[in-house]
Specification:
CATH class of the largest domain: Alpha Beta
Largest sheet: 5 strands, mixed
CATH topology of the largest domain: Nucleotidyltransferase, domain 5
Distance between the termini: 44 Å
Shape: globular
CATH architecture of the largest domain: 2-Layer Sandwich
Strand order of the largest sheet: 7-6-5-10-11
Order of helices and strands: HEHHHEEEEEEHEEHHEHEHEHEEEEHEE
Number of strands: 18
Length: 386
């Protein structure tokens, strides 16, 4: 089961079906609670079934929509390899499932769009990031979070300097020499390849690595941490076209490092970035309180989010605000209790802000500005009455 990437999130946000089912389930990685997770999912699926039937869907289509999820109930191997939370997105035409390092409250939402707000901490609060473990002997590429790391296949990326430059001169064959025989990493020799300190050859190698990673990074803005000996990092930054390489990398030869060791070394660099971003955003909100460029009025915040006017949004994690919103006109209708065809307006505001380039922070209620359900910094001062 793959990581949830930003491009995956975008695809989910753009999926449209009158019977879109979103299920969130807290899961366990060890202990007797593992045996209870399938039972909890079964209860949530029965609730989803009832909701689909109440919306007028016939039993055959309900069974088709939920089939893949019900099949998980008997898959012991699936339940032995969980993370903190499981997210399922089901429709008559598709099934998407993600094991995630996020703790969810159990919930089932059935609507004409997927419910995605619980996923946003993965991109803002507890960001996932990429990690490039780089040496002239070995290239590895990972996607990671604070608690999880997964190696990604290098389909179009050279896995070493030897592979990258072996065709420079077809008449010459790369030879490996161990040097002193003391267990040091081999050095490279051969015309067209140069030695390990030949910066021209190193740049050509790193340029191929960067181009090979485009298939992963061309739609991304996730932080990229480089793990390598120190002199390689500024050269990679020079040749790379990726805009979000963290300035402070992990230094040292990463070849012998296990993935979890790399993750543990890299996460403090990412955490520092996330914490600073949140503190800056909160300070900016506090400075703008009382002006037309910030607000904690729910209807105003949601309408501005629908119109693409929100630069930064703070949302209470487990709060809901029911009603209807026109994401094109920005018209908002709020209700104290959920009514037929209502949506969680906080979900709409969060997803609309994220999809239009804004920042979204999903916070505990005690961390929210002014103890509100939602608060926002606008891209510019809004006219009175808007």
């Amino acid at each position: 089961m793959k990581f949830l990437s930003w491009s995956d999130f975008q695809s989910l946000s753009q999926s449209a079906s009158d019977s879109s089912v979103s299920i969130y389930l807290p899961t366990h990685v060890a202990g007797s609670e593992i045996q209870q997770d399938p039972i909890r999912l079964k209860n949530l699926l029965k609730l989803a079934e009832d909701k689909l039937l109440s919306r007028g869907m016939d039993q055959r289509d309900v069974d088709k929509t939920l089939h893949d999820a019900f099949a998980l109930l008997e898959d012991d191997r699936f339940w032995r390899h969980q993370n903190k939370g499981l997210a399922l997105f089901l429709s008559p035409d598709s099934t998407e499932m993600y094991r995630l390092p996020l703790e969810f409250e159990s919930s089932v939402q059935v609507s004409n769009r997927f419910y995605l707000k619980p996923l946003l901490p993965l991109f803002f609060n507890n960001r996932y990031f990429y990690l490039l473990a780089l040496s002239q002997n070995q290239v590895r590429f990972f996607q990671a979070t604070q608690h999880q790391i997964s190696e990604l296949p290098l389909n179009d990326t050279p896995e070493s300097m030897a592979e990258a430059l072996k065709y420079d001169d077809p008449e010459e064959q790369l030879q490996y020499h161990s040097g002193s025989g003391s267990g040091e990493q081999p050095t490279y020799h051969g015309q067209g390849v140069g030695t390990t300190d030949d910066k021209t050859e190193i740049r050509r190698f790193l340029n191929q690595v960067d181009k090979g990673l485009h298939s992963y990074l061309n739609t991304e803005d996730a932080p990229l941490v480089i793990a390598s000996v120190e002199f390689l990092q500024p050269i990679y930054r020079e040749v790379s076209s990726y805009s979000n390489i963290i300035e402070e990398g992990v230094y040292g030869n990463p070849d012998a490092a296990k993935p979890d060791e790399l993750r543990e070394a890299a996460w403090p660099k990412v955490a520092k970035l996330v914490e600073q971003s949140y503190e800056d955003a909160l300070g900016q909100y506090e400075e703008m309180q009382g002006t037309r460029q910030a607000s904690d009025r729910l209807s105003e915040v949601i309408a501005a989010a629908c119109r693409g006017q929100v630069d930064t949004l703070f949302v209470a994690a487990n709060a809901h605000a029911w009603g209807k919103a026109d994401t094109f006109a920005g018209d908002v209708e709020t209700h104290d209790e959920p009514q037929s065809e209502d949506h969680d307006l906080l979900d709409i505001a969060a997803v609309q802000t994220a999809m239009q380039g804004g920042k979204v922070y999903i916070l505990d209620e005690e961390s929210m500005p002014d103890s509100s359900k939602a608060a926002a910094i606008f891209r510019y001062e809004l006219p009175a009455g808007v």
